[in-house]
Amino acid sequence: MTKSIFKEGFLWGGATAANQLEGAYQADGKGLSVADAMPGGKQRWSILAGEEFDWRIDESNYIYPNHTGIDHYHRFKEDISLFAKMGFKCYRFSIAWSRIFPNGDETTPNEAGLHFYDELIDTCLNYNIEPVVTISHYEMPLNLAKKYGGWKNRELIDFYERFADVVLKRYYQKVKYWMTFNEINSPFELPALSMGMVKSNGGGVWQNIFQAWHHQFVASAKAVKIGHELDPNLQIGCMIIYGTTYSYDANPTNQVATMIQNQEFNYFCADVQVRGKYPAYVKRMFEKYDVQPLEIKADDLALISAHTVDYIGFSYYMSTAINETTTAEKVQGNILGGVKNPFLKASDWGWQIDPDGLRIALNELYNRYEKPLFIVENGLGAYDEVDENFYVADDYRIDYLRKHIVAMGQAVKDGVDLMGYTPWGCIDLVSASTGEMSKRYGFIYVDKDDEGKGTFNRYEKKSFGWYKKVIATNGTDLD
């Protein structure tokens, strides 16, 4: 076999989030999460960004696909066996905060919730699949958003620390790889997902958003401290969205705008968590967003400095282009949009497909931080058509992934230290951006539609066998 450019022990696998696949949203003592209050459908983001949204669940007017997910809560053994059949070396998932602390502010955890993750983790290990755990992935307890106003409230640091302490102490001997927050930079566009903040509880005010980030930076550092005190060899990372950003042209105005976009969206949160300090450009950011000095306790900055992350996890789906000098067509994206790049094609949802942008992202991140990198989300959301046997010939997905893996290999040749690759939604699940099932990413088709109808049975797509071969050859056979 051709020698692989990927290191021995490279972590091939897949990624999910509890709120998007588990379902069983009130089973065994679980409390409501912010995701449980997010309506499904293409109007989801406009509803969350509206003035009136206040986290109330309104089943008379909306559907809530996250309530059932794909019933992974009852079918996780079947799902993990399919991951094992593909040859997964790792599986990235999250622990639903409200399964462990239903309201978020209790002092005693819910043992039934912990028991579920006991079984899930043990099932992974029985198949020699390395668990990769996101502590908080867009599923904070709803009570913390409604009663406390989300992450702008400093009390959430203590609640998160208690949650992290419980799960780290419970699983540190079984789980080596952790991430503290999913896509921590997403509030630049929508603070509802990771901060529990909408306009009705302060999410429309930049002062609150930056204060909430500070609280999350402190909370992340506390989790790193807990984990490293339990076992210095634990690998605890941050996780950001990375959108490789191009100037539309050589106009210096667009070049400067691109520099600022990179600093704010791609680097700010990572700079704090990886370098352990606020970057110099934060002064200009605070002026731009009219942010007054944050409320910072005496030991906050020392804690952030002392407990930086071990690696950088990131999601990469697309690149974006910046044009502030002329009128240009806008496009959609993963949180971050931009203007249409005439050199790129787009997905069914308008996300611009750019494998070379992944190589650029890997180089930019590694050369800036010199920390190991982990691509923990990447994939193609598409409309899949099934035949009479529920088979999906998803050559378009294979093509997307193949080209991105080639780009990964080029980055490794460039000198990047790459730990692993976990494509998003390795099994079809509920979309975070729209709450749809029809936006499918998986290697495994799940028979559920946007209205929640279907058998929920699982079927292998064409990409299932293809990815199995990729893993078995450590990325050398991509045909």
UniProtKB/TrEMBL annotation:
One GO cellular component term: cytosol
Active site per the UniProt annotation: 377
GO molecular function annotation: beta-glucosidase activity
Keyword Hydrolase among record annotations: yes
InterPro entries: GH (IPR017853), GH_1_N_CS (IPR033132), Glyco_hydro_1 (IPR001360), Glyco_hydro_1_AS (IPR018120)
Keywords: Glycosidase, Hydrolase
Example GO BP: carbohydrate catabolic process
Record-linked Pfam families: Glyco_hydro_1
Family: Belongs to the glycosyl hydrolase 1 family.
Protein name: Glycosyl hydrolase
Species of the source: Enterococcus saigonensis
